[in-house]
Predict the structure.
Amino acid sequence: MRMKKSTYAIVSAALNADDTVTSDQRSAAVAILRERVSSSGPLPLLLTQSQVAHLLGMSRFTIRRLVLENRLHPVKILGAFRFKRDEVEVLAAGDQPGQPKGGL
């Protein structure tokens, strides 16, 4: 999930003002916040295999396995394979397209 720079500034200031937060905790929190600051805007409609792997916290090999298991469906555009952002978001939410909810 991305964060606006203004939100980062507010949270960072709050961390610095809180005396109960140790310097190690503060450094760790600020590092996480920096990763989430949106510098390039919203995600594109189509994602590369590497982007999907990064978003889901998986390896590129696992993304290939999800394709082979028919759980992700790449789209081929001008010879390049991409993944629909909305399908990746559904998978990340734990829902599997085409399967009933609540069961395996």
Summary: The mean pLDDT is 78. The helical segments are 5-17, 23-36, 49-56, 60-68, 85-92. Residues 23-36 form the longest helix (14 residues). DSSP finds five helices and three strands in the chain.
